[in-house]
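Subject: design request, 237 residues
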């Protein structure tokens, strides 16, 4: 199915499910912002607000300033908090899949990932390692690897009985010949990502909710959910 059709279907779903989509997106984006803020603070890296303040005064922060409070224990704490992000991401994927399939999605689906968090974290760690190893060769192989395993979480949600390696293997199978299609879809959202980044940069307040993300998150999530269902239907045939 063309990306333009998937995106059109996603927009229709958003407009037909207001305020449900807005409430869930607001909760997801807010929790993501809190996790990011905590990771930055715990890791000992100075916040974006302080960096902007220094830049506004004409000072270019050096690496020693940015990492002035850097400690090994802080990195471990920051990583522990960061591991909540893939759980939250899977919860949002669950919401998007249920909404796309008209199965009564609501904001409580955001916490579905915590039900089988061990499998999710296993998928996250294994795929991150694979992507890192391929990236050590060149950037492009790393990008290809990231798309190869992109559907692992979706497969787990469809059948939680599968283990992490099964989900990763099936994702690789389904994405065979479809990686460029999904990459093209993601590139079509580039303008939204740039706008989102600009808003975040211009409003660097703790826990500030990026307004653009309230639209971009469900728009992208539902488009990818549509891509997954379309890809799986073709494999089944």
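Subject: RE: design request

Done. Sequence follows.
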């Amino acid at each position: 199915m063309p990306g333009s059709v998937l995106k059109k279907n996603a927009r229709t779903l958003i407009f037909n499910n207001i305020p449900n989509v807005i409430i869930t997106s607001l909760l997801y984006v807010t929790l993501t912002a809190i996790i990011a803020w905590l990771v930055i603070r715990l890791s000992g890296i100075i916040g974006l607000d302080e960096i902007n303040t220094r830049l506004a005064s004409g000072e270019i922060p050096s690496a020693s300033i940015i990492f002035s409070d850097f400690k090994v224990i802080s990195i471990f704490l920051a990583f522990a908090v960061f591991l909540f992000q893939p759980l939250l991401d899977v919860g949002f994927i669950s919401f998007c899949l249920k909404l796309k399939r008209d199965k009564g999605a609501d904001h409580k689906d955001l916490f579905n990932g915590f039900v089988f968090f061990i499998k999710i974290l296993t998928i996250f760690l294994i795929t991150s390692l694979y992507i890192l190893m391929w990236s050590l060769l060149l950037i492009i192989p790393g990008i290809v690897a990231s798309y190869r395993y992109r559907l692992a979480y979706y497969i787990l949600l469809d059948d939680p009985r599968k283990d992490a390696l099964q989900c990763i293997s099936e994702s690789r199978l389904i994405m065979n010949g479809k990686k460029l299609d999904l990459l093209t879809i993601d590139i079509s959202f580039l303008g939204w990502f740039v706008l989102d980044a600009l808003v975040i940069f211009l409003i660097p307040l703790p826990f500030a909710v990026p307004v653009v993300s309230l639209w971009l998150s469900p728009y992208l999530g539902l488009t990818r959910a549509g891509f997954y269902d379309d890809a799986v239907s073709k494999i089944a045939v």
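The mean pLDDT is 84.
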